[in-house]
Design a protein that fits this description.
43% of the residues lie in helices and 16% in strands. A hairpin with a 4-residue loop joins strand 4 and strand 5. The protein starts with a helix and ends with a helix.
Length: 210
């Protein structure tokens, strides 16, 4: 799968190449866990993101990108809520403050060094080229419906990455991030206990390979 997908990724030049995304992802959709988020929780996320944008509007770097920032935060927080729905544990940080205080793993409250990458259907997750932690990979269908695809170990994140999957030329130019396409290699989980098991798999592999 990996070689075939990476060849297809060379043809990516934006959303019109969504068919290439389907070749990398669709064969595994039935293996992913479908999650629905209740209206009340979606409304809470929208209110939260509105407060974030309001707090950051005085920051020039954010102000230039207001609409994109809102969309990015909505996708990210909704993805975290989707994981909460699956594992029945609460970990989302609902506070608003300076970004430097939030540069932590998404599951820090559960004492797990695990991040969450959520991306809209048709796009590939953007990750750090040198991953610090494993990542839960999510696909957003809409505000209420998500696929929890599984946990990518650091070894998997390192192995299945390619800059050509990044749609933003500016982001690609920075050189510190890349696109992840290894959906076939994710460790599936359907509850908190299975997530813990997947997490320890990453810790074990990392001692050997990283």
């Amino acid at each position: 799968m990996g070689i075939r997908c990476i060849q297809n990724l060379k043809n990516w030049k934006g959303g019109i190449f969504i068919k290439e995304f389907h070749k990398c992802v669709n064969p595994y959709l039935n293996e992913f866990t479908k999650i629905s988020i209740p209206n009340s929780r979606v409304d809470k996320v929208y209110s939260f993101v509105k407060n974030i944008v309001k707090a950051k509007k005085d920051d020039e770097s954010y102000f230039k990108d207001n609409n994109k920032m809102s969309k990015r935060f909505l996708t990210g927080v909704l993805g975290e809520v989707a994981v909460e729905e699956l594992i029945q544990k609460q970990f989302v940080n609902w506070t608003v403050g300076a970004a430097k205080f939030y540069n932590k793993a998404d599951l820090t409250k559960l004492n797990l060094n695990i991040g969450i990458k959520t991306v809209e259907m048709g796009k590939l997750p953007v990750i750090h080229k040198k991953p610090k932690r494993p990542e839960i990979i999510n696909l957003k269908v809409n505000d209420h419906f998500f696929y929890i695809c599984g946990l990518a170990t650091r070894e998997t994140l390192l192995k299945y990455q390619d800059d050509d999957g990044i749609l933003s030329p500016a982001l690609r130019k920075k050189g510190n991030k890349t696109a992840f396409y290894g959906f076939s290699e994710l460790i599936k989980f359907n509850n908190f206990a299975e997530l813990i098991k997947a997490y320890y798999t990453d810790l074990f592999i990392s001692k050997i390979a990283i």
